C-alpha cells in the first residue's frame, strides 16, 4: 500500500545518489516540484530518463544533479533549446553529461517492456537514422517467423519513477486524466515510485478515459498542489507559457541561472 508522505520526506527516502530516475509527463502533469526538491536535497550522479526532457531537466542538469541523460527529444517546448543541457554537453558545466539518445517510439517501448517484466522490446524503428551507430543500447533482431529485421531496445526499469497526477485517495490509489504519456508504464517499470498529486481526496470519482494507478503499484504519494507548474494539470491549472519564455533568457547565461537558483531557494544546497 502506498504511503502518503511530505514531498521532502519522499525524495529523501526514495532517491539516492547514483540512481536511475524518470520524471515523466507529456506537456501536462510534469512533476516539476519533485525535480526542484531533488535539487534542494543535492542528489548527485543521477541518470535522468525522460521521453521529452524539457525545462525541469534543464534545471536538474544545470544544478549538477545529473551525470547522464537517456532521452528521445530535448528542448524548451515552443521556445527553443535547453541551454543548461547544451552547456553540460559542450563544456562540461557544471559537470560532464553523458547522453543516450533514442526515438520516441524506442523510449516508449523500453518503458512498456520494463512494465511488462520483459528484458527488451522489439519495434519497427530507427530505420534511416544514424542513432544505432551512436547508441549502444539499440540492436537488431531477426523475426523467427517472417525473417524481418527489427530494432530491439532493452527494458527500462528506473530505480525511481516519479509522475504527477490530479488526485489520490487516502489509501494511495491514484487517478490522472487528460493528456497522459507513459506515466502508468513508468510507475509499473520502476523499482520505487512517487506520485505527486494536486489533492488527496476521501474517494476517487471515476472519470471516462482516466488512468488509475492502484495503491499496490505505488510506493509513495505526496500532496503538492501546483506541483506541475509551469506545465498544467487538467481541471486544476493552466500552462504558464510566460514561464517557458522567461526560462530561455535565464538558462542562456550561467550567472543568470545561478541567480535563478538563489531566487528559488535552491542555490544554497546545489553544486556551485
TrEMBL record:
Statement: the UniProt record of this protein carries the keyword Methyltransferase: no
Keyword vocabulary terms for this entry: Transferase
GO molecular function, one term: transferase activity
InterPro entries: CoA_trans_fam_I (IPR004165), NagB/RpiA_transferase-like (IPR037171)
One Pfam family, short name: CoA_trans
Keyword set includes Transferase: yes
Record family assignment: Belongs to the 3-oxoacid CoA-transferase subunit B family.
The protein's name: CoA transferase subunit A
Organism this protein belongs to: Saccharopolyspora gregorii
Lineage, top ranks: Bacteria, Bacillati, Actinomycetota, Actinomycetes, Pseudonocardiales
Amino acid at each position: 500500500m502506498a504511503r502518503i508522505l511530505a514531498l521532502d520526506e519522499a525524495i529523501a527516502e526514495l532517491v539516492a545518489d547514483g540512481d536511475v530516475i524518470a520524471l515523466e509527463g507529456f506537456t501536462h502533469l510534469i512533476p516539476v516540484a519533485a525535480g526542484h526538491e531533488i535539487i534542494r536535497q543535492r542528489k548527485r550522479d543521477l541518470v535522468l530518463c525522460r521521453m521529452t526532457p524539457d525545462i525541469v531537466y534543464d534545471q536538474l542538469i544545470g544544478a549538477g544533479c545529473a551525470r547522464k541523460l537517456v532521452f528521445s527529444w530535448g528542448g524548451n517546448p515552443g521556445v527553443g533549446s535547453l541551454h543548461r543541457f547544451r552547456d553540460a554537453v559542450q563544456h562540461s558545466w557544471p559537470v560532464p553529461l553523458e547522453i543516450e539518445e533514442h526515438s520516441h517510439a524506442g523510449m516508449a517501448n523500453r518503458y512498456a517492456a520494463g512494465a511488462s517484466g520483459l528484458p527488451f522490446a522489439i519495434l519497427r524503428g530507427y530505420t534511416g537514422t544514424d542513432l544505432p551507430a551512436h547508441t549502444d543500447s539499440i540492436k537488431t533482431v531477426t523475426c523467427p517467423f517472417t525473417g524481418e529485421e527489427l530494432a530491439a531496445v532493452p527494458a527500462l526499469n528506473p530505480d525511481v519513477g516519479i509522475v504527477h497526477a490530479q488526485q489520490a485517495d487516502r489509501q494511495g490509489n491514484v487517478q490522472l486524466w487528460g493528456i497522459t504519456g507513459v506515466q502508468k508504464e513508468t510507475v509499473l517499470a520502476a523499482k520505487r515510485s512517487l506520485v505527486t498529486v494536486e489533492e488527496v481526496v476521501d474517494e476517487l470519482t471515476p472519470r471516462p478515459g482516466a488512468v488509475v494507478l492502484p495503491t499496490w503499484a505505488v510506493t509513495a504519494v505526496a500532496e503538492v498542489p501546483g506541483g506541475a507548474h509551469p506545465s498544467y494539470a487538467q481541471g486544476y491549472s493552466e500552462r504558464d507559457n510566460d514561464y517557458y519564455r522567461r526560462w530561455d533568457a535565464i538558462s542562456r547565461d550561467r550567472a543568470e541561472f545561478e541567480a535563478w537558483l538563489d531566487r528559488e531557494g535552491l542555490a544554497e544546497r546545489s553544486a556551485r
